[in-house]
Write a structure and sequence with these properties.
It comes from Akkermansia massiliensis. It is an enzyme of class 1 (oxidoreductase). The protein has 376 residues and is α/β, with parallel strands linked by helices. The chain folds into two domains: 251 residues, Aldolase class I (TIM Barrel, Alpha-Beta Barrel), CATH 3.20.20.70; 67 residues. Helix content is 42%, strand content 11%. The chain has 16 helices and eight strands. Strands 1-2-3-4-5-6-7-8 form an eight-stranded parallel β-barrel, surrounded by five helices. α6 packs parallel to α7, α12 packs antiparallel against α13 and α12 runs antiparallel to α15. The radius of gyration is 20 Å and the shape is globular. The chain starts with a helix and ends in a 12-residue tail after the last helix.
Length: 376
Amino acid sequence: MLTASTLSFFRQDNHSLPTGAFHGMHRRMLLALAPMKDVTDLAFLKTLKDLNSLPDYFITEYFRTVAHHKKMSPYILRSIDENPTGRPIYGQLVGHEPEYLARDALALMEHDCAGVDLNMGCPAPMVCRRNAGGGMLRSLKAMDAALGALRDVLPAGAFTVKCRLGYENPDEFERILPVIAAHTPDRVCIHARTVREGYRSPVHPEWVKWAVEALDCPVVANGNIVDAATADAWVRLARPAGLMIGRAALRNPWIFSQLYDRFQGRAPASPTFRDVLHYIRRLHERTLEMQKRYVEEKHIHRMKKYLVYTARGLPDSFDHYMKRAKTSRDFMRICEDILDNDAPFAPTPPEDTHLFAHFHALLAQEEACLPPGIQV
């Protein structure tokens, strides 16, 4: 359900952000947690609250929209119905049939959510094969129908879109953005890669800059925001209204509070291995609370899904032994043996992995130049 306070909270101007570093901004930008399947759930939201490192808003893992009226995932709905953070949360839909997207959007708005987000960026092959997520970007007609169906049923302030630049090539965005703009979404988040590029290529901030200048609604940048330096690079290159962070928030859940400190000109906190251990303990407790019936193997398997990101920048022994833990007791013993000390936790992940790649290309870029012939 949409409230007046929620609308006021999100009323932003794309063009109000000055160039340069964070310090001295007159109006700081929005920060958001990117939706990630199986990990950005209620347990993680609660953990961020426990650590006092909250973004401005959340988007749920996606709800699949299907033809037969299937009950929405109770597990994901808990992120909306039991959200303890005091921050708005949007329900995300993935699908391609307009009438069923509209049906499920109305169903979501019966819950305590700020609005509905359309997923037009998920690169998972199974999703794309169904012409949903990033697969929808292959058809302007399908996009137009889906966007129109949601705009028709959602009130002002309640409709957002998350997309990529295209399916094969970034220049597809020149045709995609006008279709999105025609349906006046209330906010657009752009993952600045194509579906084919996945997560392993450099991002293309020039296209986000173009969207910032072309759209009347706030534009949020997503992709390769791993620390304060890369966030600063996005501000400098594209001047978005906000930043959406996914993998880096799982690795370093303090990233939101660290960026808020940067906004205020304060030195960000520097977590230690012992702080990481505290994070893992809280997450362990919160994931345990989510289980209706305790299954130890299931619990440890879910913990490993989160910590594959946290392991980047920790000793290799952590990743090695953590992945081999079979019981909760062994799992926590491994974490304590390696992390119960005051060694500094690196704020920036190593770049030589498939999880965090090519973010230094963003730092090295001096200017985000639009391709020849593109007009705002």
